[in-house]
TrEMBL record:
Residues 14-279 form the Sugar phosphate transporter domain. It is found in: Membrane. It is a multi-pass membrane protein. The lineage of its organism: Eukaryota, Metazoa, Ecdysozoa, Arthropoda, Hexapoda. The keyword Transmembrane applies. It holds the Pfam family TPT. It comes from Bicyclus anynana. This is GDP-fucose transporter 1. It comes from the Eukaryota.
Length: 335
């Protein structure tokens, strides 16, 4: 018989490794994208093209895994094709939200510093509550509303202190708010679209990247990036393409480690881990870029982080209470 203590120890080691992997990949992805979008080594003023190329890399990886069925002994990848009319009709509207979401996120990262990036995109929870009420008619408890109010206050304080420190970017902040809005919309509509892909998250990611490659093209043209690309002189550089491919691989990897962390822990643990990761990311970024922040700036981060963690905890308690309620006899046949 297996030793229960040995099994428990193995489980904790696995959880530790997965959470650590999520932290490393997530933080590395932010720094890699920041380097690509505004670093001097790349120096390409075409953020949408860079984001488009990352979608191309993710699509190639997903296509390869879908063809091979995944990686033996690691994970299986569902088979499917994004070029089916029925699939396109169901998924393309969501893919538009997905495209705008990653575009706004990268545009935000281009114009704001990594330390402020978390605050710039901190309104996702607030938009989730507002859109759930408007679109789904779902009410929110008073304690969760108070958490949202604290998040808004923390966001305002962070913006104010960025302005005081002289590093505030209105354009980057607007992109951050827009990215938070699109992330909320994407999260809500994902629940409606998943049944059409047999609840396969990886298949949905595959389709989203496939359609985003097409959706991004007119956006690149409208953003005036064609002339920038035409005059760019580093397309022949091997180092440039290595950096671009690394960015694309990181974009794919963050999706995998996020799903893996939720699988081996829970959605609540994932939220807590993400919140703690954001705190570590902010500290690392201020040291990496040698930026000095005042007490009020740090207070804004603490307020947003604590409020987000409390909101996640309150939602979990509410879901547990809801699950314990008995189902009325007249509704049992409908469940």
């Amino acid at each position: 018989m297996k030793d229960p203590r040995s099994e428990l120890c193995s489980k904790y080691i696995k959880i530790f490794l997965v959470v650590s992997c999520y932290w490393v990949v997530s933080i590395a992805t932010v720094f890699v994208n920041k380097s690509l979008l505004s670093g001097q080594s790349v120096n390409l003023e075409a953020p949408l093209f860079i984001t488009w190329f990352q979608c191309v890399v993710s699509f190639v990886i997903c296509f390869t895994l879908s063809t091979t069925g995944g990686i033996t002994g690691v994970f299986s990848f569902p088979k499917g094709s994004p070029w089916c009319k029925e699939v396109a009709r169901n998924v393309v509207p969501l893919s538009i939200m997905f495209t705008l979401m990653i575009a706004f996120n990268n545009l935000c990262l281009k114009y704001v510093g990594v330390p402020f990036y978390f605050i710039g995109r901190s309104l996702t929870t607030v938009f989730n509550v507002a859109l759930s009420w408007v679109l789904l008619k779902q009410a929110t408890s008073m304690r969760c509303m108070l958490c949202c109010a604290c998040i808004i206050f923390g966001f305002y304080l962070g913006v104010d202190q960025e302005n005081v420190l002289g590093s505030f970017s209105l354009l980057g902040t607007v992109y951050g708010v827009a990215g938070s809005l699109m992330l909320s919309l994407y999260s809500i509509y994902t629940k409606k679209v998943l049944p059409s892909v047999n609840q396969e998250v990886w298949l949905l990611s595959y389709y989203n990247n496939a359609y985003s490659i097409i959706i991004f093209l007119p956006l690149i043209v409208m953003n005036g990036e064609l002339s920038v690309l035409w005059n760019y002189n580093k397309f022949g550089s091997t180092f440039f393409w290595i950096q671009m491919i690394i960015g694309g691989v990181c974009g794919f990897a963050i999706g995998y480690v996020t799903s893996l962390q939720i699988k081996v822990t829970s959605p609540l643990t994932h939220n807590i881990s993400g919140t703690a990761k954001a705190c570590a990311q902010t500290v690392i970024a201020t040291e990496w870029y040698n930026e000095s922040k005042n007490t009020l700036w740090w207070s804004s981060n603490i307020i947003v982080l604590a409020s987000s963690a409390m909101y996640a905890r309150f939602k979990q308690l509410e879901m547990e209470e809801q699950a314990k309620k008995p189902i009325p006899e007249d509704r049992k046949s409908l469940v």
